[in-house]
């Protein structure tokens, strides 16, 4: 009987790799927003000051980059919910989050048609990210309502 070894735990990416990935995603978001889904990946790499090989190691296709940009925007919204809740009064937190949401919507309107082609329309990608967004907005709104009903 062969012994079963535990699966190795994936290593956390190096700090420079994380910075490269974040820089690629920011530049790609700006490029997608400005020029649509047919941006040049070589231009993204050049603007990010990395080699094309580094970009393709993180994102082997334009579609994978586009999807990662979208997921990152949703993750920012979800993280902002928690951050704003901890650092701002309820109504201010809701207001600040809504401003981020407007930016997200502007980005999504531009990249959604390309995402629809990649994932085949309303899919698991939109379902999962929709749950994250709804959870964030619900938490912020409920907190603001509680504050209005029960002022200090």
CATH topology: Tetracycline Repressor, domain 2
Distance between the termini: 67 Å
* Outline type: globular
The class by helix and strand makeup works out as mainly alpha
Unreliable spans: none
Overall pLDDT metric: 82
CATH architectural group? Orthogonal Bundle
Q: How many alpha or pi helices? A: 6
**Main sheet overview:** none
Count structural domains.
Answer: 1
CATH superfamily: Tetracycline Repressor, domain 2
* CATH level-1 class: Mainly Alpha
Strand content: under 5%
Report the C-alpha radius of gyration, rounded: 19 Å
- Assign a percent range to the helix content: over 70%
Q: How many DSSP-defined strands?
A: 0
Question: SSE order, as H and E?
Answer: HHHHHH
Give a short synopsis of this structure:
The chain has 152 residues and is an all-alpha fold. The protein has a single domain, classed as Tetracycline Repressor, domain 2 (Orthogonal Bundle), CATH 1.10.357.
Overview of the molecule:
This protein has 152 residues and is mainly α. Helix 4 (62-87) runs parallel beside helix 6. The chain is built from six helices and no strands. It has helices at 15-35, 41-47, 52-58, 62-87, 90-119, 124-149. The chain has a single domain (15-149), classed as Tetracycline Repressor, domain 2 (Orthogonal Bundle). Helices cover 77% and strands 0% of the residues. The model has no long low-confidence stretch (mean pLDDT 82).
